[in-house]
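Quick one: structure tokens for this chain, please?
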Amino acid sequence: MSGAARLPMRRPPAALSRAFDWLRGTPAGLVPLALAVGAGAGLGAVAFRYLIGWVTELFSGHADYSSAGHAANPLVPWLGMCFVLFAPAVGGLVYGPIVHRFAREARGHGVPEVMLAVAERGGRIGPQVAVVKALASALCIGSGGSVGREGPIVQIGSALGSTLGQLVRLPERRLRLLVACGAAGGISATFNAPIAGVFFALELILGDFGVESFSAVVLASVTSAVIGRAVFGDEPFLHLPAFHLSSPAEFGAYALLGLLAAVVGVAFVKVLYGVEDLADRLWRGPEWLRPAVGGLLLGGLLLVLPQLYGVGYPVLSGAVGGRYVLWFLLILVVGKMVATSLTIAIGGSGGVFAPSLFLGALVGTAFGALAHAGAPGIVGSAGAYGIVGMGAVFAATSRAPITAVLIIFELTGDYSIILPLMTAVVLATAVSKRLSADSIYTLKLRRRGIDLLRGKPASPLESMPVSAAMRPVPEALGADASLDTVLARLTETGDAVVPVVDAAGHYRGVLTARDAERAAADNALDDTAGRLAALPVALCGGQSLSGALDLLHDADEDGLPVLSDDGTRLVGWLTHRDVLAAYRQAVRATAERARPDRPALGGFRVVTLALTGPGVLVGARIGQVDWPPNTRVLALRRDGRPVPVTGRTALARGDRLSVLVPAEHVDALTDLASDPVPA
């Protein structure tokens, strides 16, 4: 919306204005908004699923080509070779220009863009995203793209929620909430899993489990589920075999499956972005043509493994149902990783939710078959491990264990699966965190130089030293000063705290009014300042204000002393008020330098950039970078330590930048951070 001319707006009628105020500012106003977003997300999910079916039928002549009579045969008959080879290229030739021209954020798997919109853009998503994402993803999946429909549905529902919120002019807090409502509605309708939809939105998108957030998201999810069930029925979209636990000793096998799922999940993430990096290095043509040319490679893979065509839920059901032999399951695992990665790398549009479930089902079934062969009296059917594997691999890739447990539980409706499922999911999540710092969603943003610190925005306090904010030391008292002298000093000057030094001027502690009152109440007339002084936690001038603020929060005193480097002299005093004043002055000064014609912070955002890979910023000096207009670097941290920000400071891989940027240039900044090194 930046740069667009604003048309003069008529003042709305008084009744309409009051209605908008009610929607924007009252708890009850959230109810109709959440219901409307849930209904929109549900209808959007229904329309999107039908659209995928129509496009698949148009391209292949089947409702789902992956199960069209050749699921047991790894080779496509000769009559279908041309279709399979060229269908992804034709689809890419159609959706590539659409995405490139109208909504580039519709490229890829969608959920990271929603997370970014909530964390950094106040929940604002362009209204065109819903339409472009639906068209592009349906064309990609229907023409053979080996991706899921859940990520696009999340982005579509979120875009609808954001659009409604912007029309009503909601404040950012409520706008973010409507985005989460749209995401929950999308998951709820497509999986027929309203509980999982709620926790997907709260756990991954919003990061907030407050009462207001929970209530609104539940309303949207239930509304969307009702619409989905009215159209598709009350049956789960996957028909999985019954689950049963053969022996308590089987928990050990499920624990091992959780460890294996973590490795598979992390491997999937590495392959996904590794293939994307390879495609970026090799492709030199226009971006709109990339899906068509890359589609030929995808078509070649589908010639060998047509089971990877599209979403592939029939193949997933067949694997869990025991219709594939062990060696073919392992081939499909590798093939799915490559096919999904290739679809995303060439610029396809689709989600990674379903591929994670697909991989989990195949890996779990293969593991269960091997375990059953080794210990048939202890280990149950292989299909049971396939069901648990679905949740475990999804948890390893997304780092959303609550959602993983709930979605498998809702798909099966079997409570007996909960304990083995929780065992595998928790282990998969914990081990995957040890193997990789990022989830499949956050890594996409980190690679673009964006580090999402939920609920903890970047702050210049991280790089400002205590010495820049501390106040001068109050006049010190000698350690031998009497209680009467202490009382006189505190009452005459109004100081809340008085430092105490010995005869050599060395710091001995501080005296507070509370300490003096306690001594007076005890009639301790013989006490001296040195005996009454306490030694609180001390600060040093070089440490960051961010760390000092944590110590101030934990201290009972009204402030903390700042000592010299050798710890013998008192050089300053720091209070909460000093920290806040320094922060306000730093940010206001930076904003005023950036846009002297605007109020400080008006229309600005603080964005964190993490330089995790090669790019144009790595190795460049701050003063030489072609930053977006009126952008200022607030803070720089390297190896966890603050680095002075000057025009001559050279940026290095691994640096974390806090950048103040006008809201209209946030996209330009993130694009700059993600630009590759010129060839």
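Confidence is low (pLDDT under 50) at residues 1-11, 69-76, 453-458, 593-602.
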